[in-house]
Design goal:
The chain is an alpha/beta fold. It contains four helices and nine strands. The longest helix has 14 residues, at 93-106.
């Protein structure tokens, strides 16, 4: 595999309901993508992120009525979550290029990708062999501030009875 696992990506029908339920158990989440319905062609309406220990949880609410890589995963319950992808951090532009070569060699389809000022990303369809999509993210210098805004929650330890 390329990169190091750092994120579990989930899809929900209602970001507010899902984040409220998660906050009770895991801590704070920050809505980092808002009102994407104003951007033509965007498949994401809103998204929130939060770390739980070393692992980032990403919650995506797709835009309604737009067929996308996310729309097939929307759960029935408004606050429900469906595991959508595993996210892997890529350390350099060269490694990102090597990743593309490897994906071609194994016959994995790149189903969505983008190159933004803060990061480059792609989703590879590895469902046939592994059961889910993989997202690969190369965080550029400008992206460090973007990820720095993600709340970091430490796992809470259960209280133990004295005695």
């Amino acid at each position: 595999m390329f990169g190091r696992l750092y994120q579990f990506g989930y899809v929900t029908a209602d970001l507010d309901a899902a984040v409220a339920a998660l906050r009770k158990r895991f801590g704070e989440f920050e809505v980092l993508i808002e009102n994407r319905e104003q951007q033509p062609g965007s498949a994401i309406r809103r998204a929130a992120k939060g770390y739980f220990g070393a692992m980032m949880l990403e919650i995506i609410e797709p835009r309604a009525g737009i067929a996308s890589v996310y729309s097939d995963s929307v759960p029935d319950r408004p606050d429900g979550l469906v595991l959508h992808h595993l996210g892997y951090a890529i350390d350099s532009e060269a490694e990102f290029a090597d990743l593309r070569t490897w994906l071609r060699e194994i016959g994995a389809e790149v189903v969505i990708e983008g190159d933004l000022p803060q990061l480059a990303y792609l989703y590879a369809d590895l469902k046939a062999g592994l059961g889910h999509l993989h997202e690969y993210v190369w965080l550029k210098t400008a992206g460090r501030d973007f990820y720095a805004a993600v709340p970091r929650n430490a796992p809470r330890r259960a209280a133990t009875a004295a005695g």
